[in-house]
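User: Structure please.
Assistant: Input sequence and predicted structure:
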Amino acid sequence: MAKTEFKPYDSAEYLNSLEDIGYYLEAVLEEAGDDPAFVAQALGNIARSQNFSELARRVGMSREGLYKALSTDGNPSFATIMKVAKALGLKIEFHAVA
């Protein structure tokens, strides 16, 4: 019997359009609760689905600095989050829920 090999699931492999990215972020924000690191990691997944070096250039950071900021151990500033969103072609919006 042939041995089946599996590779770890990577969200970045499935984020092929702005529409995919938008749906992904909506799901992330619903699941994140009060965990900003979860959102930062999701932005890192999105960034990896794109040209990461070009994105870092547009954000004004080194590739390594951006990778670290958007990692599970990163703690990016809100300014960095805003710059990454804009460089990805995204807009952050807030809506009243009450």
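Residues 18-32 form the longest helix (15 residues).
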